[in-house]
Amino acid sequence: MKYYIIAGEASGDLHGSNLIKELRKLDSTADIRCWGGDKMEVAGATLVKHYRDLAFMGFVEVIKNLPTIFRNLSFCKKDIEVFKPDVLILIDYPGFNLRIAKWARQQGLKIVYYISPQVWAWKENRVHGIRKNVDKMLVILPFEKDFYKKWNFEVEYVGHPLVEVIDDFIQHSTDSPVLATQKNAGTIALLPGSRQQEILKKLPVMLQVTEHFPEYSFVVAKAPGQEDAFYHELLKPYKNVYAVSGKTYDLLYKSKAALVTSGTATLETALFAVPQVICYKGSSISYEIAKRLIKIRFIGLVNLIMDKEVVKELIQHELTVENLVRELNLLLKDNNRKMQLQKDYSDLKKLLGAGGHASSNAAKSIYRFLRS
Fold first, then answer.
1. DSSP code per residue over 230-249
2. CB count, 10 Å around CB of 313?
3. Is 259 helix (H, G, I), strand (E, B) or coil?
4. I want to staple 90 with a disulfide (CB 3.0 to 4.6 A). Which of 97, 166, 219, 320 is the partner?
5. Distance CA 286, CA 242 (A)
6. Exposure string (b/e) for 314-351, b if CB count within 10 Å is 16 or more?
7. Residues 346 and 360 in one domain
8. pLDDT tens digits for 203-240?
9. Does 320 share its domain with 239?
């Protein structure tokens, strides 16, 4: 069968690649074409467009890049028409994928959405379009099943794919030669995001924090697609700061604590049981708009899933050097805080793993749907 998969971010590339591997186990003749990244290509899909050419963050940035976005939409539709897939599989990335879903429904295509858009955070009215245009929704967060139920849309919870990814990494992990060179009291991870504009907002604040902890080594996880020279200029003034590329999991596996940009990385950090502070800072205009639209209590996935503040969130004006230093000190030195955090992380993992092997579950569900 022919599968067309669209993922627009690094996390989508990771989950898409594991889905592709599982689909190939079920369908040895699978012909897969995708928008995604290197991981999906290595897993055996023909890569049409890389996610680094698609990622625009924030309201202002999206408006500035509307011509490029519309060109990509037009190109994507034409490519799907030529390929004639048996199923269109959409992975998160709602601004783009929901438009494609609406168009694909008019073409009579079968549509599966794997990893729901965060409609529970804002724009709940998008559910109407999802229910109308999506044949099957596979969700990865436990509370999403109940959320969609109140909209009379039955979805399938398959578990969270990061649980299996990180368990597999830990099971096969060996010492990274890069991190083995770090010294002193230990390593603290800095995960400033994947897009250049968000890195420029957060990494300079994180880097100033390093001067207050000279006994620790700080390591920045570089984003795929960003040039080394970009990081070199930012890191140059700091003595106890290093950087790694393609080694984020090695870094988290060895870290005592982490400063993490809101998003999937916060969940990855929690599944490695690393104490963390969630950091978010966007453009002033984008933040003011988002503040008026977003309905959720927290921005971090860890806190959202647990429905309480498990880890501290420092958002916009609260993301200061002084606040980060205070929170990092608590994570490193307050034993009661550390014990409670580890208990919450353990409960989180049980919740996310309740559905079993997510990628396999998703692939089986898609394959059953196509066969029926």
1. HHHHHHTT-SSEEEEES-HH
2. 21
3. strand
4. 97
5. 31
6. bbeeebebebbeebbebbbeeeeeeeebeebbeebbeb
7. no
8. 999 999 999 999 999 999 998 778 889 999 999 999 88
9. yes
